Amino acid sequence: MRQLELDLRGAAGSHIRWMEVAGPPGAPVQVFLHGLGASSSHDFPEIAQHPSLAALGRRSLLVDLLGFGYSDRPADFGYSLEEHARAVAAVLDAERVAAADVVGHSLGGSIGLALAALRPDLVRGLVLGEANLRRGRGQLSRWVADWSEEDFLARGMAEYAALTPWPEYAASRRLADPVALHRSAKGLVHGTDRDLATVLAGHPGPKAFLVGERSRPCEEEPDARAAGARVLTVPDSGHLMLFDNPAGFAERVAESIAR
């Protein structure tokens, strides 16, 4: 586990942490960003080491966003998409990485797009697992964002746990800071100053949008296609595709990055 002390508004002195799956010296880098309430250190080790990705000879960075997993939980941080993107950019700058392939699931995919808008030098390719591309989308994130912060801390987090009973997700959800989860959901619903579908359309590098087979019809798919992203299906899976079918998810990521 690696860590970096941040000097960001609302997070000065806090540490963001990530795991590394080493590759050959000088290998290209792929960065994994998790979804709402999850953590990359929990979600992606098996996927990053899957034979289909290992064969590409990449170095992998599995980043726990601020407020989640092993990273710190600064109470004054805003947890907007742009603020999360600045924290990820600090990690990549510390690792002296440029032109990385960013693999983001759900919230993580939207943060990957925010990163591409903020620091295009850091992002070569984008692999987005059912990321939000328009403001106001995402049934679960909208449900969280509709609570006031005070009420979500008092009652909403417990109800959220009841709404998300999946055992694969429960372990990382228990590590999520409720303030970070609520503010991140609000940031996801609010979006960014630039429409994320427009950011995706303007991205010059490789781009793919992954959809779980059981998620169709997926409201983001038409926008992803219109933005020029290659849309790939992860078989035998829904939105939690990396838990439902980790091998299938890894294979689709490898297929996307290899192009």
From TrEMBL:
Top-rank taxon: Bacteria
AB hydrolase-1 domain: residues covered: 31-147
GO molecular function list: hydrolase activity
UniProt xrefs under Pfam families: Abhydrolase_1 (PF00561)
Keyword Hydrolase: yes
UniProt keyword terms in alphabetical order: Hydrolase
InterPro entries per UniProt: AB_hydrolase_1, AB_hydrolase_fold, Carboxylesterase_BioH
Keyword Transmembrane helix: no
Name by which UniProt lists this protein: Alpha/beta fold hydrolase
Annotated source species: Actinokineospora guangxiensis
